[in-house]
Structure formats: structure tokens, C-alpha cells
Amino acid sequence: MRPMDSRPVYDALLLVSFGGPEGPDDVMPFLENVTAGRGVPPERLAEVAAHYDLFDGVSPINGHNRDLIGVLEGELDGLLPIYWGNRNWAPYLGDTVQRMADDGVRRALAFVTSAYGSYSSCRQYLEDIEAARVQVGDRAPVIDKIRYFYNHPGFIAAQAERLLAAVASAGGGLGPETMILFTAHSIPTSMAAGCGYVEQLREAAELVMAEANIAHPWELVFQSRSGPPAVPWLEPDIAERVGQLGGGAVDTVIVVPVGFVSDHMEVVYDLDVELASVAETAQVDLVRADTVGTHPRFVAMIRELVEERLAGEDGPRSALGSLGAGPDQCASNHCPPPRRPGRT
After folding, report:
1. pLDDT tens digits, 62-90
2. Class of the CATH domain delimited by 153-288
3. pLDDT tens digit string along 128-138?
4. CA angle 85, 298, 308 (to 5 degrees)
5. Taking the domains of the chain in order of start, what are their residue ranges?
6. Topology at the third CATH level for domain 12-149+296-311
7. Alpha carbon of 245 to those of 192, 239, 287, 289: distances in Å?
8. Cβ proximity of 173 and 167 under 8 Å
9. CA pair distance 53, 45, nearest whole angstrom
């Protein structure tokens, strides 16, 4: 007698993302959602809200997710229906899980639009998913998160093509006067100490350089830090580094936002506006590589990750580099939250 197939049966794919405002009236409520419980003063929120004014109060992230779902539906070709829920703005995750329950979904896979493992980019999303399930109650579907994908061949190939396009647009190739900076969202050092975030970012950057067949100096930098100045966050800061490079032997900086999969505000404002201003002052030409977005290889990667889970534990697991494929089920103590001031 053949053993019974113990693979989970999935009947939906849930895209889980950060969310963003889609008009001027959304901006302050959105920022209040993001900073709830952190004691951020209103004047700081107003300062950040002004960044959105340059974009008519619209973050690109929701539009990106709509585009991604559109091409992913074609890629999956009916394999699973796709739902979408956000952490901080409509469509809210809790509302989406309710709709899934109403549609009869029993068990779903969740693809989170973050490639790396840290509290903010992994465990917090697991907590969000569980909170949404609790909100829905007994009818809520079981939801299993797909592993992080920073070293998946699809992500690396897509990012390498974006890097090569940026190099081509810089003109003149890569000489000693050009520096490549891989950038990602900074996190508190206490958060980084409990996860593999920095190690994973370095591995991803090395893999992208190898895939692009580029032998050239590069550095890993960080951006978009927030919180009290007394709390240490990952450095070097990208703006400070570009300022340091100006006036020296470097006259061109190619920025690769390897920590982001789409052009949301940390890309289109923090890099394309703020960093561009720093580069102009430092007399450095700034070239920013595109994020992977809806690159065909990235979209195919999502399908491959879905098929990997449908195949069960014995199926192939694609990963490049030395760190291997991440686990399907994270350990209970992985990616702990950062220590808050006054806490141990």
C-alpha cells in the first residue's frame, strides 16, 4: 500500500505587503498606522508627510502590487487565486483574510514582499498574519508564509540585469572613478544582532555582482533610518557615504537598492530626491538601478516558490551562495524584535 500524501493542500496565494497612501487625505492616517505605539511626535509626522506632497500623496507601492498581481496571475495561469493584504493601508490584511474565509479558502500560501530575514521583514509579518486570523475567528484559513528569497536565482538574476542597465546608463563603463553602493533599509543594531539580515544582504550583493559578471569595488550601505538618535542603527548611512566620496577620486556612484523589491517612498524620495541632492552638492553623478519590480525572472521566481511548497518537503529548493535556502517554518526564537530604550 502506498503511503498517503502528507503534502498540505493550498487553495490560494496571499500577497502581503507594507501598504501606502493613495491620496493626500490618506497620508497622515497612514503614517499614524505605521508609527502607532512608538511615541513619534506630530511635528515629525508632519515633516514626513511633506515628502508625500511631491507625489500628490501617493506612494508607488500599492500600484506596484497591483501590477505585480496582474503579471503574476498570468504566470500562475490558474494554479491558485491571488489575494492581497497590507500591514498599514487598504486593502488591510484583516479585511482580506475575512474575504478569503468568506470565499471558502481553507489553507493559503503567503508571499511577503520582503526578501530578507529580520523582525520587521519576517517575524512581524507572521505576527500580522496571525493577528488577522484571530480577527476573523474560527473560519480563518491556515496561512503559511513562503521562505525569504534574497538568494533565489530568480531574484539575483533580475537584480543583476537592473545593475547592468544602470552601468550602461552611466556611460563609459566602470572605471576607478566609479563606486557601486548596494543599499537597504537600516534597522536598529539590536534587531540586526538577532537575525541574519546583514549577512544575507552581503550575500545577495556578492551574488548580484557575480551574476552580472562585474569585478569592481562595491560597498553595502544603509538608508531611511528612523527613531530616537540615541538608538544605534546600522551604518554607514548612504547619504554620509556619498558625501564622503565626493571631492575624491570617485565621480560616479551607482546605487543598487537591493533591499527593496519595488519603488516605494524609501526609493523614490529617500534616494531619488534626498540622496540626489546630496550627490549634487558633493559633485557626484548618481545613477540609481531599478528595483526588480515586475521583472519576468522575479515573477517566475514567485511561481517557483509556490510550486516548491506545493511539492512538499522533498521537492527541489533553489538557492545560490553559501547560506542555503531558508526554512519553510521559522524557529520560534528567530528574528526577535529590537530592544526598546529602558528594556533588557
Report:
1. 999 999 999 999 999 999 999 999 999 99
2. alpha beta
3. 999 999 999 99
4. 80
5. 12-149+296-311, 153-288
6. Rossmann fold (3.40.50)
7. 26, 10, 14, 19
8. yes
9. 13
Q: What DSSP character marks residue 266?
A: H
Tell me the per-residue pLDDT of 210-223, one tens digit each, with 9 for 90 and over.
999 999 999 999 99
Q: Which amino acid is at 68?
A: L
* C-alpha cell at position 295: 521583472
**Angle subtended by helix axes 42-53 and 24-34, to nearest 10:** 140
> Cα–Cα distances in Å, from 341 out to 186, 210, 230, 338?
18, 40, 9, 10
Q: Provide the whole-model pTM.
A: 0.94
Give the Cα separation of 14 and 83 in Å (integer).
5
Of 141, 21, 15, residue with least CA distance to 75: 15
77: left (phi over 0), alpha (psi -120 to 50) or beta: left
In whole angstroms, what is the distance from residue 192 CA to residue 272 CA?
26
Q: How far apart are CA 16 and CA 62, in angstroms?
A: 11
Q: Are 262 and 293 in contact (CB under 8 A)?
A: yes
Domains 12-149+296-311 and 153-288 share a fold: yes
Cβ–Cβ under 8 Å, residues 224 and 259: no
d(CA 117, CA 115): 7
Contact predicate 279/253, CB 8 Å: yes
